[in-house]
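Troubleshooting entry. Yesterday's outputs looked truncated, so today I'm pasting the complete records for two proteins to confirm everything comes through intact. If either block looks cut off, that's the bug. Protein one:
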Amino acid sequence: MVNKVIKVIVAGAAGRMGGRIITLVHGDDRVELVGAVERQGHQLTGRDVGAYLGLGETGVILEDDLNNCIGRGDVVIDFSSHTASVAHLRIAAGNNKAVVIGSTGLTPDEMKQVADISKNARCVLAPNMSVGVNVMFKVLKDVAGILGGGYDVEIIEAHHNQKKDAPSGTAVKMAQIIAQALGRDIDKVGVYGRKGMTGARPEAEIGVHTVRAGDIVGEHTVLFGGMGERLEFTHRAHSRDNFARGAIRAAIWIVDRENGLYDMQDVLGLKD
């Protein structure tokens, strides 16, 4: 861990996650908020972030362009949008700043751009910053490898009714991890919801199902169904604070790393 106060800029600062990150940074003596960014035209632009979050005046004004504050920070924590996150990473790379990206819904082309930019930048990219979820990623890999092909795999995820992408980035990552452990191509065996006369379930299929309702923060269940038994692994997020804490942990970790693209498995030391 670095022995200095890390200067943080939050992108997507007026969103649900951005607000929680700012609030927790405000109370953490390891980090200092020095910038906050939102999309152009946002109604809160120009206001002190502490004022609209109920933290009191902080001296940090919400801006609509990362270029205006990038020089003040060590690291950008970005929960804006998949498109904006790529643009922000490019700006950060050009200014030798680290980035933590928690935005989901990145397209294959955007993922390629992130990988290319990260050759000359320090970036943590993870669909879920929760420590618990990332431990679950590790467990699912091990369990799938032990069980092998004799168990059907189904993933069910649930989130609030304002979430824009489906399935969640976390569910997608779980499906990818399990498919890789089983030697399958998720692009070929992944099934996203079912309807009608689908016939018998193919053995290699991995089902992914989405629920959107109310204010659910995030729930993910992975079911391994065998003959005469089933195993279920569930993670339930009670608040967004666990994601925010993970993002802050990643921000502190990434600042002094070598250029490259990392994930929360790297941050937590869970890589094999």
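Protein two, checking that the full record survives here as well:
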Amino acid sequence: MKRKLFCETNETCYKISVAKEILLRNFRDLFSREKIARARSDAELPVIVKSHASILLRKLHGVDMQLQENKKTNIALASVKINGIIIHPGETFSFWRMIGNPSEKRGYKVGLVISRKGFLNGPGGGLCQLANMIHWLVLNSPLTVTELHHHSDALFPDDRRRVPFGTGTSVAYNYVDYRFKNTTDQDVQILVWCEEGELCGELRCQKEFPLRYRLVEENHHFQKEQGKYYRISQVYKIAIERASGREVWKKLVLDNHSEVMYDYSLIPEDQIKDSLDGD
């Protein structure tokens, strides 16, 4: 029998573990030499590197739509904290250092929170979508991701997905952060806002980068292994020379092998490949 972790013993132990992780993060940040971006500007940098929009309200199997409505409020509040942030060369963007604690005292509502224990309801739930937006913009740029926590499982079936599977990130205040560093020679800026039922985002800079980028998902399918279904695919990042249109390189950035956590009947039959179980 697998021994339980301390945080899995009961609710009190879980809260103690979370409080410990928050304190450890604060301690590390206090003595870190990492320069965190703080400057914001209402003036938009002139060049759009990447823009994107994602639907705020999704019908997730088995999830109360009120939690989705609350997510809209949470994302709107957090977006205001981030919108217009300037990241100078050498600086690091930190999701939680910009937003702060998403507590009910600060106006955040109870939303869907994903943890080791599964799905929970908690203040600030749903902010993963905002972190996912920022990560997608960064993936389509030469910026360097320095902290990323992938969702290890396929939690929900697709609902109007616009990006390759697995290109999101988990966040939990404040010890599970999303961070990237501006390793270029110019300022970059993030704009995020809510409009007509969508979360909108732009990554901007001062002048065009010599390369542009494209993310592609290949070999996507579902496969049964030892009685469980897994979602499998590979995501590649392609760099294209802006002046000539020539492909410069293609790199594997994500090799998905994610256990399906939702009802297997919702898996599209035409996307299921031969089972490794011999079925």
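Both blocks look complete. Sanity check on protein two: The radius of gyration is 20 Å.
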